[in-house]
Specification:
The protein is of the alpha/beta class and 280 residues long. Helices cover 29% and strands 31% of the residues. α4 runs parallel beside α5.
Length: 280
């Protein structure tokens, strides 16, 4: 696709509306999104005349919710791959270095992660929170279940730092393919499948479960997710204002809050936590 084929919408929206909008825009086939000071910049392939996508985006405007849409506008010629790569660089998260394949190594231990269309390069606050809490909870030889793996960075990070085995899953096929490639790139192996937790045996037990997902996506699966954890559960991807709701549900399943973290990014405050089952 050439740069002449890309259009952009500018969406003004309050912070509490953005997660919902991102989900709806992703379902419409966006090429990418950027958070701005006032809302979102959203990119699509230039559609043919009469394409329903244009009307679907326009219908997201809602004065009552403070949502205003400007566009579409043709995007000036841009080397998108170069711009994307320029935004990624080596980053240290806890004891682990994360770098894209086109950057030189800056330290050990490290993972080489190319996110492509998947989520998880260490650039987003939720990934950083999840990885730090996960590595703090990890014990040598632990078995790890990574729910919503994206690029595979959490499962692979656990393996790099001493996990005995890892299983990872994601609903999106591009994410699963990307996670598989990243595992090969790092010489690591894990169980990987594309689908929901329903594909796992109900009796599967691991020491540590991690889920870096929006709370709205994880909530319907939380009881099933927690049932697989014998010791620790790490959650990230929730907004700070959702903290009490997450704690109430997880603690209601018999876990205790052990550690929590939050980080502000692009106008939102993201929250994550580690919960443990009480020692018997």
């Amino acid at each position: 696709m050439t740069a002449r084929d890309v259009i952009e919408f500018r969406i003004e929206a309050p912070g509490e509306e953005r997660d919902r909008l991102i989900g709806e825009l992703s379902a419409l086939g966006t090429l990418g999104l950027e958070e701005t000071e006032v809302g979102l910049a959203v990119y699509f392939p230039r559609p043919p005349e009469g394409d329903p996508m244009l009307a679907a985006v326009a219908r997201l405007a809602d004065e009552g919710r403070g949502i205003r849409i400007v566009g579409p506008h043709l995007v000036a010629p841009t080397d998108w791959e170069r711009e994307w790569r320029r935004g990624l660089e080596p980053r240290r998260i806890g004891p682990l270095w994360i770098r894209p394949s086109w950057c030189a190594s800056e330290g050990q231990p490290e993972l080489c992660i190319d996110p492509e269309q998947a989520f998880g390069s260490g650039e987003h606050a939720t990934t950083r929170i999840a990885l730090e809490l996960l590595l703090q909870a990890l014990r040598p030889g632990d078995r790890v279940l990574d729910v919503g793996t994206g690029s595979g960075v959490l499962a692979l990070g656990a393996l790099r730092l001493g996990a005995g085995a890892a299983i990872a899953c994601d609903l999106e096929r591009p994410a699963c393919l990307n996670a598989r490639d990243n595992a090969a790139r790092n010489g690591l192996r894990f169980g990987l499948f594309c689908g929901t937790l329903a594909a796992l045996a109900p009796g599967l037990r691991v020491e540590l479960v991690v889920a870096n997902l929006l709370w709205s996506e994880l909530r319907p699966w939380i009881a099933r997710t927690l049932a697989h954890a014998t010791r620790s559960f790490v959650v990230s991807g929730a907004l700070r204002r959702e903290r009490d709701a997450v704690c109430a549900v997880v603690e209601g399943e018999g876990f205790q809050l052990l550690r929590e973290a939050e980080e502000a990014q692009s106008g939102d405050s993201w929250w994550g936590a580690r919960f443990d089952r009480p020692a018997r």
